[in-house]
C-alpha cells in the first residue's frame, strides 16, 4: 500500500473551498444519501397521505362533494382535497427531521460533526435543505397523483409550484418543532410519538377535509388558530384560482392572492418563531459551555 | 499486511505539522496549565491538571471510570470549554481559537461514531469533505485509509453491517482524513475482543510511526504498557503519577509477591495485616486482591517464604504464590490502592 506520507501534501492548511455554502452542501448530500438509503421511510411517509387521498375521495367524495359545492360551486372533492393532502405530506415528512437528529445524536455523528471545522449553522442549513427538498418532491408526487384521480389545478404549473412553496413554508415550523422535541427528549420514540400525536388533531380540526361551515362550532374556533387551516387555504386558493381563505379576510390584491398572502404571512411568522426556538435549543446542545 | 515503504518520522513534512509549527514556536502538541472543569451541578471533573505532550509522542492517559479522562479529552477536542486554566493544542488556544484546533486534530470518541446508513467509503468521504480535503485528493485518501484499516474489501458495504471492531476501525479512519498532526483516542478499544484490540493497536502504532502525536485514554493497563511512550495516571480529576511505563514500574520498587489464599475476604484482610507488620519487608505496599494479597517490596524475593510461613502459623491457607517483576497494574494498585479491571463488567460511560 502507499504510505500516507508519500503522496500529495494536502492537510488542514489546504482546506479547499469549505465555505458556508460548501459546508451546507456536504451535509445536504449526506442527508439526501441517507434518505435514498432508506426508501422505506420515503415510501411510508407518502403512503399514508396517498391512502387518505384515495379513501377520502372514494368514500366521502359524494357526501363531502355536496358540502364543498355549496361554498365552491363547480369544484369537485378531488380538487378540494389535494391541497390538504399536500399539507399532510409536508406535516408527515417534517416529523422525520427530528428523528434524523435523534439518530445522529445516538450514533455519534452529531458530536463527530461538532469536532469538524464545519460551520455549525451550515450543518443544520444543509440538513434542513435536504428535508425541504424531499418534501417538495413528495408534494409534487401528490399533485401528479391528484391530477390522475381527477383533481384540477386551475392555475396550472405555476400554481403547482406555488402549492409546493406553500407546503415548504408550512413544513418549516413543524421541522423546527420536531427538532426541538428531538433535542429535549433525545429519544427517537418520544419524538415520533409527540409529533404524530399532533398530526391528526391538526389535520381534522381545520379546513383540510371539509369546509369550515360544515363543521361544529368548536372546531371552527380551533381551526382559526390552527396553522393547517392557513396552509391548506393558501394552497387551495392557488389550486382553484380564487380566494378561499376562510379565516382571514383581506382585499389587498383582489382575487386569488388575497387567499394566499395572509396564509403565507402567518406561516412565515410561525416559521420564524419556532425556528428561533429550535435554533436556540440546537446551539445550546452544541455549545461547549459546561452543562 | 501493509508496510511502510518509505522514510520514517524524521523526514515527514505533512502540512498539518507545518501549520501547527507555524502557529507556535513551541514543539508541544498539547500544553495544559492548571486545567479545571466544574460542571454546572458543581461536580468537579478535572481539578488542576498540568501537562505537556511533545510532538510525535504516544501519550497515555490512564484512570478508572469517572476519573476525568473523557472530560479532559473533550476539552482538548473543543467539545467542552474549560472553567479554569489554559489549554493550547498544536499552539492554538482551545477556547479562543477552537476552529484552528478542530482543523488540526483528529478525534475518536469513546462511543463509535459512524453513520450506519452510509458505506465505509462514504463515511470516509463525508469526513474528507467535512475537513476540506481537496476534491482531487479525496479518492486517493479514501482508498489509502480503507487500506490502512483493512476495510478495502468492504468499502461499498453499509457500516450497519459491520462488526464492532470493523466499526471502530472505520471510525479511526474517519479521524485521520485530514492527516492531523495530533489524534485523540478516547478508550478506542473498550468493548473489543483481544484480536480486534490488537489490530487497532497496530494501526495506532503505524500512524504514530509516521509522526502523528497520539493522546490515548484507556483503562487497560496492558494497552498503555504496549503503546505509550509516556503515561499520566488520573484519579478524581487530578494527575497522581506520570512518566514512562518503565519509570512508573521502577517507582513501585522491588518485586511483587502475589499470594493466593483460601477463605475469601476475611482471610485476605488478616493476611494483609500480617504482611504489613512483617519487618523483613521494610516499607512494603500491601494490597488485597481478588485471590488474596499482593505485596510489593525490595525484599519480596528474599523474604517471600518467611511470609508464607507466618501465614501458615496464623492458620491462613495459602493455595498459591508467585514472585514477579511489577506491571503497570501494580503501579496502579500502589497509587490508588485499588485494582483497575476494565473487564469487570464496568464499561465506561
From TrEMBL, chain A:
Keyword GTP-binding: no
Topological type in the membrane: Multi-pass membrane protein
Classification via InterPro entries: ABC2_TM, ABC2_TM_bact-type, ABC_2_transport, Nod_factor_ABC_transporter
Pfam families registered for this protein in UniProt: ABC2_membrane (PF01061)
Transmembrane spans: 39-60, 80-102, 132-151, 157-185, 197-219, 260-282
Compartmental location: Membrane
Keywords: Membrane, Transmembrane, Transmembrane helix
Gene Ontology MF terms: ABC-type transporter activity
Lineage: superkingdom: Archaea
All residue ranges annotated as the ABC transmembrane type-2 domain in the record: 40-285
One GO cellular component term: ATP-binding cassette (ABC) transporter complex
Annotated signal sequence range: none
Protein name: ABC-2 type transporter
Source organism per UniProt: Halorubrum coriense DSM 10284
From TrEMBL, chain B:
Assigned protein family: Belongs to the ABC transporter superfamily. Drug exporter-1 (DrugE1) (TC 3.A.1.105) family.
Swiss-Prot/TrEMBL keywords: ATP-binding, Nucleotide-binding, Transport
SMART domains per record: AAA
GO molecular function: ATP binding; ATP hydrolysis activity
Residue ranges constituting the ABC transporter domain according to the UniProt record: 30-261
Superkingdom classification of source: Archaea
Entry-linked InterPro entries: AAA+_ATPase, ABC_transporter-like_ATP-bd, DrrA, DrrA1/2-like_C, P-loop_NTPase
Organism: Halorubrum coriense DSM 10284
GO biological process: daunorubicin transport; doxorubicin transport
Annotated protein name in UniProt: Daunorubicin resistance ABC transporter ATPase subunit
Keyword presence, ATP-binding: yes
Coiled-coil regions listed: none
